[in-house]
Amino acid sequence: MGGSALESMCAGVAILAMPLMAEQHLNARMVVEEVGMGLRLWPRNMAPRGIVEAEEVAKMVVELMEGEGGKRARKRVKEVSECAYGAMKEGGSSSRTLDLLIDHVCGEGANKVFK
Hints:
The chain is mostly helical. The chain has a single domain, classed as Glycogen Phosphorylase B (Rossmann fold, 3-Layer(aba) Sandwich), CATH 3.40.50.2000. It has helices spanning 3-11, 24-35, 54-66, 68-88, 93-106, and strands spanning 15-17, 38-40. Strands 1-2 form a two-stranded parallel ribbon. Strand 1 (15-17), helix 2 (24-35) and strand 2 (38-40) form a beta-alpha-beta unit. Helix 1 (3-11) crosses helix 4 (68-88). The chain is elongated, with a radius of gyration of 19 Å.
């Protein structure tokens, strides 16, 4: 996932995805379909260049903020956020992995120098 998606995940904010180019399509799929922490805007009636009408944006914002789909996404992003913070805190999986990387690059026990 890209930076914005990770920032939203860590902040516990659900995403309304509207991919336009490059990796945004993959990120939108991951956020919406795989992780379940957002909703996706789709162009209607095969609109040129993927244009989404203002009414559709407004409808999806209301769905994200008040609807059942948004409720599920907000619940899921809260769960994911809590897991992310658990991984980042001392002794969490990210902390342990960083320790292993430092040991691998600098030699066994080197990570103790940085603590």
